[in-house]
TrEMBL record:
Molecular functions (GO terms): bis(5'-nucleosyl)-tetraphosphatase (asymmetrical) activity
Organism: Mycena sanguinolenta
Taxonomic lineage of the native organism: Eukaryota, Fungi, Dikarya, Basidiomycota, Agaricomycotina
Single GO biological process annotation from the record: ATP biosynthetic process
Composition-biased stretches (Low complexity): 201-214
Name of the protein in its database record: Nudix hydrolase domain-containing protein
Family the entry assigns: Belongs to the Nudix hydrolase family.
All residue ranges annotated as the Nudix hydrolase domain in the record: 18-182
Pfam families linked: NUDIX (PF00293)
Chain residue ranges for the region called Disordered: 193-214
Length: 214
């Protein structure tokens, strides 16, 4: 198992009434290498954008919607060299080894049964699929994008080291892993570009050299 992963858990199964599916996002601004972290000004804690999946909504749609609603930023997925176990489709079998936008992390959290009026919500497991998104250097935060219970949310752009100090460990580890993938991707892309330019220069030199047999 990865150093970022928990030990394997026993095989399990839950009915629809005993699990919640959600999606969250680590939002990076590549131009500044900063991340978006949210602050609940009344309860005074820091967190990442995430939330439950709506009926009929994909996890990818959930991640983008929650990122926008809670942060106020229009976020796009950030392709990364992510060692996903998802295979490439039949017409593109090498898709999984190129930068992709698959989830980079899954976290689980057990929640207790709750009584609301005459209704009892049973206990269950909350599974959150984490993605990595990006905003441009000139991104402008919109106001009033959240739900009524999210009016105290404030979005802050900050260095990764600062974010790791403020977040609870269950979300800090997601940021650490996402940041490692981001840095790895940047380094690989730069190396690939260096090799591409070297090949182009070599080919240009060979075509411009005089033919000794002419």
């Amino acid at each position: 198992m990865s150093d970022f992963s928990s030990p394997q858990v026993p095989d399990s199964g839950w009915t629809g009434q005993n699990f919640l599916l959600g999606a969250g996002m680590v939002v990076i601004q590549p131009a500044t290498t900063k991340v978006v972290v949210l602050y609940e000004s009344e309860k005074k804690y820091w967190f990442l954008p995430k939330g439950r999946k709506d009926v009929g909504e994909s996890l990818e749609q959930t991640a983008l919607r929650e990122a926008y609603e809670e942060s106020g930023y229009q976020v796009e997925f950030l392709p990364l060299y992510n060692e996903t176990r998802a295979p490439g489709p039949p017409d593109d079998r090498y898709a999984a080894v190129r930068p992709n936008c698959e989830p980079v992390y899954i976290s689980t959290a057990a929640y207790p049964a709750r009584v609301r009026g005459n209704r009892v919500s049973p206990a269950g497991e909350y599974l959150t699929f984490w993605y990595v998104g990006q905003i441009p250097p000139d991104a402008v935060r919109e106001e009033g994008t959240g739900m009524p219970d999210e009016v105290n949310y404030q979005a802050h752009l900050m260095d990764v080291k600062e974010a790791l100090k403020l977040l609870f460990e269950d979300e800090a580890i997601v940021v650490r892993y996402a940041w490692e993938l981001f840095c790895w991707t940047q380094n690989r892309l730069q190396e690939e570009e260096r090799k591409r330019r070297a090949r182009a220069a070599s080919e240009s030199e060979s075509t411009s050299s005089p033919n000794p047999t002419a």
